[in-house]
């Protein structure tokens, strides 16, 4: 499939849904208030044109789909995501063009995103990343990984005390030290130790 010009738009829902195969955008505009383009296993190439959404996600790549962008624009004019890469998507190639969001995330990735060719990449947390487009070509790649089953961001699945931490939480002995934090390297006061023992013996 090849789109050279014109426009596709939807008031709500998806303007264009691609399932498998390939699709090349050489011009034109695809826009929606929610999803402009959703790719399920399709290899998408953008060498010109604009993908635009006023909310939610402008371009969503999933199910082994891919995106190769050399020129053009992916934009979210609201507070949503311009380019959303699901964990089942392939690593993107962005060597030109612009990926922007007015108030949300330019690129949201389920994995670790890296930018080659000297461009600085900032991890904003929650899977979002920002980088400044260089004057020349830029290569963007992402590495997807299994999500940790640990309830705490500072307790790795591979930590020797992982099972003990899960046991303490499941038994109601402790809930950690804050939002998604356990502070495994921190110390315990006598009052905290007494509280842990009391909770355990009260079961």
Automatic annotation (TrEMBL):
Domain SLH: 148-203
UniProt xrefs under Pfam families: SLH (PF00395)
Stored InterPro entries: Autotransporter_pectin_lyase_C, SLH_dom
Name of the featured protein: SLH domain-containing protein
Species of the source: bioreactor metagenome
């Amino acid at each position: 499939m090849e789109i050279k010009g014109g426009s596709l738009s939807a008031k709500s829902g998806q303007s264009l849904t691609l399932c498998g195969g390939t699709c090349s955008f050489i011009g034109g505009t695809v826009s929606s208030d929610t999803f402009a383009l959703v790719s399920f296993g399709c290899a998408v190439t953008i060498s010109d044109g604009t993908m635009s959404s006023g909310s939610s996600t402008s371009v969503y790549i999933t199910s082994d789909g891919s995106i190769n962008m050399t020129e053009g624009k992916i934009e979210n004019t609201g507070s949503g995501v311009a380019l959303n890469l699901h964990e089942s998507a392939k690593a993107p190639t962005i060597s030109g063009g612009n990926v922007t969001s007015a108030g949300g995330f330019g690129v949201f990735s389920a994995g670790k995103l890296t930018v080659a060719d000297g461009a600085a990449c900032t991890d904003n947390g929650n899977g979002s990343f920002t980088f400044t487009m260089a004057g020349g070509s830029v290569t963007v790649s992402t590495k997807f990984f299994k999500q940790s089953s640990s309830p705490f961001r500072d307790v790795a699945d591979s930590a020797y005390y992982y099972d003990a931490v899960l046991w303490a939480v499941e038994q109601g002995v402790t809930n950690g030290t804050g939002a998604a934090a356990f502070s495994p390297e921190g110390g315990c006061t006598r009052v905290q130790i007494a509280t842990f023992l009391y909770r355990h013996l009260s079961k």
